[in-house]
Amino acid sequence: MAPPRDANWIDGLRGVASFMVVCGHLCTAFVPWLHAPAHDPKSAPHLFQLPFFRLAVGGRSAVALFFLITGYVNAIGPIGKSRSGNTDAAFNGIARSALARSGRLILPTMIATMLSWFLAQTNAYHMTKHVDSTWIRQGWHRQEPTLWMAFKSLFRAEVETWTIGWDDYDGTQWTLHLFLEGSMLVYMTMFATVLVKPKARFLIYAVLYLYFWQLGEGLAIGALKGMNIVFGMFVAELHNHYKDSATSVLPAPVPTIMIVVGMFMAGYPQDAAQNARWSHTMQTFMHSITVEKSDVRRYWDHLGASTVLLGIFFSRNARRVLTSPIFNFVGRVSFPVYLMHNTMIKTVLTWMVYLPSAMNPPRNEKGEQMDLQRGTTLHIFVAVALFYYILYRAAALWVQHIDPVCAKLVNLFTTWAYGDSQSARSGPILRNNGTLEKTVLPA
């Protein structure tokens, strides 16, 4: 069993982001109209369509948080070694992390896809095809007619998750190849800037940020991945600059104001921004400062999540909250929660919500079966509560039993790939004059 990680505020924030993603998908499944700020421009908004409250049912800004955290945690180590002048350790760390990171991301994802594939082949998604929720119904996957076709389907899904960014058995995995690309963007930037002074690296961050900002039209490359990764590296630079004094740099009210403003920006609606004056104003403003055809929703997601991250970074109280036991737990299980939640929505939650209707399927006048109808509001609330318990309980078991196996396999491969033990030391990567030198590894 792997030892528990120390309480860390960035882990707690990752747990919040994971929880928000699940909330967003539940909203899309059962109350998709909440993604708009109002039903139409003349209608009064629902409570959870208002700013701040809508974060409880929105998950888009949480995806931005994941990219910010990716940039932050992968850059801290190399930046720290660079600032201390230990460039050989920085280069070695980047080289080892780049290889290990791929395995740590790909192996658990493959296992999650296999789980969804197994459920599909045992016809566990049968009810999913007949429910009245469009989002859940779109996640249905047929049971393949032969074992050969089933394995071909699994192989295709495993490969396409990392090539075209789509997994037939779990559509919510479309971001994972972007997380891997984002990690490699961090390592490439760190490799290129290990020898430069911190002020120069800040300038490089600014140039990269402006580059990704103007891409605009490229959803995955620009506003979703690039800017968040770069800003995460920027905060990692601040971490190494201020060290333990970061929470005393700004006056007490300022970090709180930053968090509140960030939460407002992160609440920019996913759909129909023109239905409310506040969101329409935000839409018009962002269109005026971005290139043509930009997805302004991703820009607001980024700005909101980045401002929240920066506010937490400078806030002692916010960090204290995020290192509490409950946030430490949700942070530790955040990745398996992300990997399993869609599969469990299509099975466990669907069974609980639609079982009464499935026991007596509704039919039209011709005797044809109609979509299964969900239960009452109270029924759904109880089902969602049970779903969350089962999901987080399963995620805890994943961390206890599956993560250690994945970590061991990654360590075995990297040890073999390097041709030495993880603790072995290689020769210097750079000479004093900065020219490349051949590294000699023991036979």
TrEMBL record:
The protein's organism comes out as: Melanomma pulvis-pyrius CBS 109.77
Q: Which PANTHER family match?
A: ACETYLTRANSFERASE, ACYLTRANSFERASE 3 DOMAIN-CONTAINING PROTEIN
Q: Where is the Acyltransferase domain?
A: 8-355
Cited InterPro entries: Acyl_transf_3_dom, Acyltransferase_3
**GO MF annotations, alphabetized:** acyltransferase activity, transferring groups other than amino-acyl groups
Q: Where are the transmembrane segments?
A: 12-33, 53-73, 105-125, 174-196, 208-236, 248-268, 335-355, 376-399
Write down what this protein is called.
Answer: Acyltransferase 3 domain-containing protein
Thylakoid as UniProt keyword: no
> Carries keyword Membrane?
yes
Which keywords has UniProt assigned to this entry?
Membrane, Transmembrane, Transmembrane helix
